[in-house]
Design a protein that fits this description.
Blueprint (H helix, E strand, L loop, with lengths): L42 H27 L8 E4 L5 E4 L6 H5 L1 H8 L2 H8 L1 H35 L6 H5 L8 E7 L4 H12 L7 E8 L5 H12 L6 E7 L10 H16 L3 H4 L2
Parallel strand pairs: 3-4, 4-5
Antiparallel strand pairs: 1-2
């Protein structure tokens, strides 16, 4: 249960300088109470304080907005304020940024090094310049020795027939299989791709595999057009495959189409495991 509000003592003024407290003493008189000398805060003064505070905060916000508008910062390490409440921004750059961005200046410093290093320190030039020259002399000496070694080997074997050394080794033919996956591409686009391969010098080693999808419209007509156009272009063989739709545990797409076409070509060509290494 909620407690009732306690009774308050109601005060009212009946005469100037007298205050009635709602009851009187036994002699039916009221004591004269002088007005208090303490300052009394009325609603008008409270409202005045609120307005001054609001104006103060508005002034601070306007100053902050002005500082933010004039602020241009790329990277900030810390922000401090001086005695006049002015913000001081200390930017921070990583120590390696100068090395990363100054490649051109480093080049212009290193290339003319023998010319300007004596003006810095003669003692440093005495040790630095001979060291650099000695390094280059060592590099070119090694290059000259290796070149002389190869020249001697070529001169000694100038009359040797190296083809006899390779005659005893079994040569395995190298064959190339090129697969093109097609779905709804026009025949002209497929023909241009095949023509690029037909212009190669080793076209007789290339097996052309053109794989269509089962849902490709007019796939038989496209196969006949391509077969008639490229059957005498010099390919080792041209194989056309139709990738079936709805194979179990298979995602339909270009990869599955190429996989089916290559597996079919390997079976038709009867390629052994030894030949697959080439």
């Amino acid at each position: 249960m909620m407690r009732p509000n306690p009774k308050t003592l109601i005060r009212f003024f009946s005469e100037q300088g007298h205050q009635n407290n709602g009851y009187i003493n036994e002699e039916n008189e009221t004591n004269k109470i002088l007005p208090s000398s303490h300052k009394q805060h009325f609603p008008e003064s409270i409202q005045h304080d609120q307005q001054s505070k609001m104006s103060f905060f508005r002034q601070l916000s306007s100053q902050a907005e002005q500082k933010l508008q004039d602020l241009v910062v790329n990277s900030v390490k810390s922000i401090l304020e001086d005695k006049n409440d002015n913000a001081k921004i200390y930017s921070h750059k990583p120590p390696h940024s100068i090395i990363e961005t100054g490649q051109g200046s480093h080049l212009w410093l290193i290339v003319p090094l023998p010319f300007w290093i004596p003006f810095v320190s003669n003692k440093l030039a005495y040790y630095l310049l001979p060291s650099i020259q000695g390094l280059f002399v060592l590099m070119w000496t090694i290059i000259a020795i290796l070149a002389l070694k190869n020249a001697i080997i070529l001169y000694v074997n100038r009359s040797r027939d190296f083809t006899k050394d390779c005659a005893g080794q079994g040569q395995k033919p190298i064959r190339h299989i090129v697969a093109i996956s097609c779905y709804k591409e026009p025949v002209d686009l497929i023909a241009r791709s095949v023509e690029t391969l037909a212009d190669q010098t080793e076209v007789h080693r290339i097996t052309m595999v053109i794989s269509f999808e089962e849902r490709t419209p007019d796939k038989e007509k496209k196969c006949n057009i391509l077969r008639e156009k490229f059957q005498n272009c010099g390919f080792e063989r041209i194989i056309f495959t139709i990738h079936p739709y709805g194979v179990c545990d298979e995602i339909p797409g270009k990869c599955s189409n190429s996989n089916y076409g290559l597996r079919t070509a390997v079976k038709e060509m009867a390629i052994t495991e030894d030949e697959m290494d080439n």
